[in-house]
Write a structure and sequence with these properties.
By secondary structure, the protein is mainly alpha-helical. It is 33% helix and 8% strand. It has 3 helices and 2 strands. It has helices at 2-5, 12-26, 37-42; strands at 59-61, 72-74. A two-stranded antiparallel sheet has the order 1-2. The chain is flat. The two termini are 18 Å apart.
């Protein structure tokens, strides 16, 4: 993921965490009767419709922004 997105190598821990997060929501195993770990914990399938692609430019809302300041930071 880091190589295809041309991201720096210091982000490897975040990429591993992202892969684990995806795996827990999307893969199923035989021991869970074809359900994902997310389904077993929450009782419903995960909603993956608004999942951004890895390395997509996003904006994070600032909680304490004044009226004249920018209300988001590029993340």
């Amino acid at each position: 993921m880091l190589l295809t997105a041309n991201l720096p190598k210091f982000l490897w821990t975040e990429s591993v965490q992202h892969v684990v997060w995806l795996k827990n929501r999307m893969t199923s195993t035989c021991t869970l009767d074809g359900k994902t770990p997310y389904e077993m914990v929450h009782g419903m399938k995960p909603d993956m419709t608004d999942l951004p692609e890895w390395s997509t430019r996003i904006f994070v809302l600032k909680e304490q922004a004044s009226k004249l300041e920018s209300r988001s930071d590029e993340g």
